[in-house]
């Protein structure tokens, strides 16, 4: 299960939670393996029938109907289409965790845009029956804060990529992803967490995939309780909090995961509507945190206080 969608996958996906809905019926998402899948620049792998493509970056192409092709050299090629299907041509063993890193990252963000929901670059936990999200660019401690809040009894909602769903009549909902954290080695050691899998990363450190127990993960979509947009200060001092509303909240476009990709896929109006809905909740804050891990307890207290 992923964001409430039933998944049928030819690839092993140990990160995902088990399906808890009604048995039977079609899968919400199919993940297939096709070892003939090739780049659109080769005009093979069925791309010739999809119309013209536009290059979005090294190894990334968009099809005429919003399909995304992505090739990560030495890892896999991926095709995401129709909001319901991902096709993978692995260059690594099918159970390699690196395959899942991109499948459940950039490819999943593209699938969300295709389905009409917005991916947020955020990690989230459940506190007091609502979703508390830590959003921002990579390296600001989203996953670390989620892990630390979980050590205080919060339940994981999503790590690094959350889904904002505006289609429910009761208002914006944050949908759960899967019970897994990705932490750098030094962060995992500082929090006393041992990683299950060390996954080679594209940054300065590898990431550890940390499985989360069923009891520490929520499968229910939750209303937004707090969206903390993270920033970092090199200077010592207390955590700085600024309420974000109106135009100031609308300017936080970097909380959208793969923003440029979404705009290239024609989802600009959906992104604008989503930012407007987040601003209207009046639950967004900017949280400037010191770089000192010794200030973590104060930061956690601040988040819990803001979450009410």
Automatic annotation (TrEMBL):
InterPro entries: Hpr_kin/Pase_C (IPR011104), P-loop_NTPase (IPR027417)
GO biological-process terms attached to the record: regulation of carbohydrate metabolic process
Ranges for domain HPr kinase/phosphorylase C-terminal: 120-164
SUPFAM superfamilies xrefs: PEP carboxykinase-like
Protein name: HPr kinase/phosphorylase C-terminal domain-containing protein
GO MF terms held by the record: ATP binding; phosphorelay sensor kinase activity
Pfam family, one: Hpr_kinase_C
